Fold this protein.
Amino acid sequence: MIQASKYFLTLTSCKYEWYWLGGELQMKSHEENYQKYVKILEEELVPAMGCTEPIALAYAAAKAREVLGCMPDRVYVEASGSIIKNVKSVIVPNTDFLKGIPAAAAAGIVAGKAEKELEVIAEVSEDEIHRMREFLEHTEIAVEHIDNGITFDIIITVYRGEDYAKVRIANYHTNIVLAEKNGEILHETLVQGESEEGLTDRSILNMKDIWEFSQIVDVADVKEVLDRQIAYNTAISEEGLKGNYGANIGSVLLDTYGEDVRTRAKAKAAAGSDARMNGCELPVIINSGSGNQGITCSVPVLEYAKEYQVPEEKMYRALALSNLVAIHQKTGIGRLSAYCGAVSAGAAAGAGIAYLCGGGYEEIIHTVVNALAIVSGIVCDGAKASCAAKIASSVDAGILGYNMYIRGQEFRGGDGIVTRGVEATIRNVGRLGKEGMKETNEEIIKIMIDG
């Protein structure tokens, strides 16, 4: 038996077994659960070009054109309200600043490479951009709001004369559940509510095990996926500060409040969002299906790691912690909701920052609870420029949540949606976002469509 820090490590037939000194068993990291945590990071931290909802729509359109086997002369798009909400106002990258559902569909049909999934329109030529505009001008593209009882639902049917092809994506961005041509079912997966078929079960996530995984994980097992997140999300953040994107929230923050680490953490995350919401053609590494959430739970952590010059290994552990905390929170809320996903990611960033600043498990969980108590009222009214400002507020809440706790201050059970225990509070937030805000989501969609 080898003593390691506050743990005893025993080599077994599994990956590791860890015991907390003093006799309390904290987490047996058996091979199966250890590998599941690694797999969850690999499944969630994937590259995407542009806002993920229009890109998912472009992916479905590219796949439908592929199934049809030729360019269509008519397109019919059916989309759930949350898809309409998140596509309506955001610029589709590599389209010369086109917006909206028809633009996303046209981009996928004309220039999409379906095999690249969420990077479906990462490589687009000037000629293809010109052909997109011609396609939009000369092709009928009808859009219908549908409600099949799930929040994430895209159905695209493309026609050429009497021939047609149909593709459906449901529940998450790359989950093609139907491919059909001229009445022949080429592929079909039963959609059972909002379950995420084909993905590792997220219900195994909990704060205690996330914390312990972040402390014991062999960094080599997560380094590749985290290195890609560092490279992609840092690059788009820097581009956001250099360019003129959206409301330039990052630049406004730096000009107003200076360049201390707290301001930089907020500003750089906001700048990355402003860039990707407003036409930047750089990819990001997403989290829980969202580029904004991927940026929010990584860039502030990286900024604090740089400020405090922490060892590289500790930086990777902080990123693993932050990403998994964000995924855990979003599991209860769902991919799309009227509850702003930046809130969850900002709380997760606060957890990563707390760890970098010397915090342990108690500091981490109280940071998350405090942050959720502060900003859980932020609504999602679609993808657009104001997302960057919401990100800044959420990251600030994460940092404030940590600074509250180390000064002996916290929100306690009974304070609004906060209840005793971090898991119970996270469940309350999930209930609020998934069930409590259904009507809010529908009202937001009506406002956006009618407006």
